[in-house]
Structures are given as C-alpha cells and as structure tokens.
C-alpha cells in the first residue's frame, strides 16, 4: 500500500476513503521495509516529554522515533491530504516530540515546517502525534 492509504480498525486497508469504516491510522512508509500508521488524534496543546509519552499510550499508540518523524515529514503532503479528506486534524507546522532520547534530560524533536531536528529539554512543550507500529 502507498503512503496516505487508510488503515481501518477492522484491520483492512484502502487507498480510497471508506466512509462506513473507522480510521485507525494513515499509512506512512518510513522506508521500504518499515511502515507505521499515523493515528487520527493529536495533542491539542503542547506537552512536555513525559506527558507526550502518556498521551500516546492513552490513545492506544506510541510516540514515533526521530527517524519515523523524519519519514512523516518527508511524506507530510500525502498524509495531510488523507487526513483532510477524512475530516481529521492535519499535522501542524510546529515542533513534535519523538520517543528518541538524547540523554536523561533531553529528547529529539522535529520541526514539521522544514524537517529540522533538534534535541530539547524534556520539560519543553511540543506537540505529539501517536503512531501505530505494524
């Protein structure tokens, strides 16, 4: 399946939106051998690192790694088009947390506007978009 395809809660996938089904995620091919599902929920406010991890778990997913976030950024237009078509919140042009830690006090994050990476203090506040692993 192509990036931007819909993944449904019944385990099926489709390149076309099926209104009668519940979306579990939007497919993102991070590499040729690694795919994830971008969940249809996102933190409405910026969260610190620990709260971001908790948010992802409570949504039924996990926080993406920095490499997965880079894959999301590289496919942002396709992902946002699918999210928009389904009436779901699109990715923001802002900083997003990854689960990749730099040290005990810092973790990597990505600027979704230009794909820039940086590590931020875990007390900083950024958005988070949970993902599903397959």
Describe this structure as you would to a colleague.
It is a single chain. This protein has 134 residues and is α+β, with helices and mostly antiparallel strands. It contains three helices and eight strands; from the N terminus they run E-E-E-E-H-H-H-E-E-E-E. The chain has helices at residues 49-58, 66-74, 76-85, and strands at residues 6-8, 13-14, 23-31, 34-38, 95-101, 106-111, 117-121, 131-133. The strands form two sheets. The chain has a five-stranded antiparallel sheet with strand order 2-1-3-4-8. The radius of gyration is 14 Å and the shape is globular. The mean pLDDT is 96.
What would you say about this model in short?
The chain is of the alpha+beta class. The chain has helices spanning 49-58, 66-74, 76-85; strands spanning 6-8, 13-14, 23-31, 34-38, 95-101, 106-111, 117-121, 131-133.
